[in-house]
């Protein structure tokens, strides 16, 4: 009987776990929870790091795009500047010598490598001054030019000036000449225009200051050919 009681007590003793054994699973659970928290923190930190890295990349891209844009503008500006020095210019018309073809304040496109021809509009440096103006070529090197009774003659042949037809007609109806009589001989003492020289007149003949006052223009003083009026936009026109 005593031996049985002892065995029962032993069994009971083994059946009831010690307090240390109860603590172990609690510690394991706590350690698991702490590990999970660490993982969450790491994930949170990694997400933040990714977001910050993406933000940095976006900022860098914006900077690169901005630099590229500014670089493109700078290169374009330099190219336009170089082209304007050698190929074209966009001067503003000043005064009323070219009325009614061009008016004061008009902006024109000048081709610096354009071909010089009779009746072509040109942008010229006025001899002995710093002024630059638009005028029309009437006489080329080697030509004989005369005006008589409002009729232009080049090398003895009558030439029509369609660009001032209405103005001439109005002036003649009022009993006046639109272009006063003159010739190359009266201007220069030569029978024809010398080599490298050009006779240029304004279209507003009664009021224009041109080769009749300051003489023939040297070829080097012709900046370029006026090919278009670009401003004002509603009067956009090619010549």
From TrEMBL:
Entry's EC annotation: 3.4.21.89
MF terms (GO), sorted A to Z: serine-type endopeptidase activity; signal peptidase activity
Keywords attached to this entry: Hydrolase, Membrane, Protease, Transmembrane, Transmembrane helix
Annotated catalysed reactions: Cleavage of hydrophobic, N-terminal signal or leader sequences from secreted and periplasmic proteins
Topology with respect to the bilayer: Single-pass type II membrane protein
Compositionally biased residues, Basic residues: 1-25, 34-48
UniProt similarity note: Belongs to the peptidase S26 family.
UniProt protein name: Signal peptidase I
Organism: Enterococcus ureasiticus
